[in-house]
């Protein structure tokens, strides 16, 4: 399973394929990505579904005049990225490293949960086969 480096603003920008607002609007791809969001759209119906790479908060129903940072703050005030509250270029090295560390820890537990689920399924299967073999 791949771990995408979504802690990088350039990587988050790449995820926005059919974002409904252009560069002239406050709620543009650049500002979304700067504020920590990446696109989780699966089609036209949820073209504006976006998620924070760090806290996992998912938001949709964006308006052209929305400020992504303010929306992030008002919906996920405890997010570590919101608490630092800086665009990537303004982050100090220790701030950036703490964000990367947190992201990697989150990703590790996500991958771990998936793996545990798969092992559980396998165990149940083996157990069933053993019971049948008795
Ligand atoms: Zn967040």
Outline:
With 134 residues, this protein is mainly α. The protein is 49% helix and 6% strand. It has one domain: Inhibitor Of Apoptosis Protein (2mihbC-IAP-1), Chain A (Orthogonal Bundle).
Rg, Cα atoms, Å? 19 Å
Helices, by number, come to 5
CATH topology value? Inhibitor Of Apoptosis Protein (2mihbC-IAP-1), Chain A
CATH architecture: Orthogonal Bundle
The CATH class is: Mainly Alpha
Bound molecules: zinc ion
**Helix percentage range:** 40-55%
Strand order in the sheet with the most strands? 1-2-3
**Which class best fits the helix and strand makeup?**
mainly alpha
Describe the structure.
With 134 residues, the chain is mainly alpha-helical. The chain has a single domain (9-133), classed as Inhibitor Of Apoptosis Protein (2mihbC-IAP-1), Chain A (Orthogonal Bundle), CATH 1.10.1170. 49% of the residues lie in helices and 6% in strands. It contains five helices and three strands. Strands 1-2-3 form a three-stranded antiparallel β-sheet. A hairpin with a 5-residue loop joins strand 2 (50-52) and strand 3 (58-59). It starts with 8 loop residues before the first helix and ends with a helix. Zinc ion (ZN) binds at residues 36, 52, 54-55, 57, 72, 76, 79, 81-82. Pfam families: BIR. GO terms for molecular function: metal ion binding.
């Amino acid at each position: 399973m791949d771990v995408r480096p979504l802690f990088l603003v350039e990587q988050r920008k790449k995820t926005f394929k059919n974002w409904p607002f252009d560069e002239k609007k406050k709620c543009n791809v650049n500002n979304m990505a700067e504020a920590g969001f990446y696109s989780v759209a699966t089609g036209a119906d949820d073209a504006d579904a976006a998620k924070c790479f760090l806290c996992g908060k998912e938001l949709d129903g964006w308006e052209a005049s929305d400020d992504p940072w303010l929306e992030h703050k008002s919906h996920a005030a405890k997010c570590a990225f919101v608490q630092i509250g800086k665009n990537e270029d303004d982050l100090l090295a220790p701030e950036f490293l703490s964000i990367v560390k947190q992201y990697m820890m989150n990703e590790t537990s996500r991958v771990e949960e998936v793996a545990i689920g798969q092992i559980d399924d396998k165990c149940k299967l083996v157990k069933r086969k053993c019971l049948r073999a008795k």
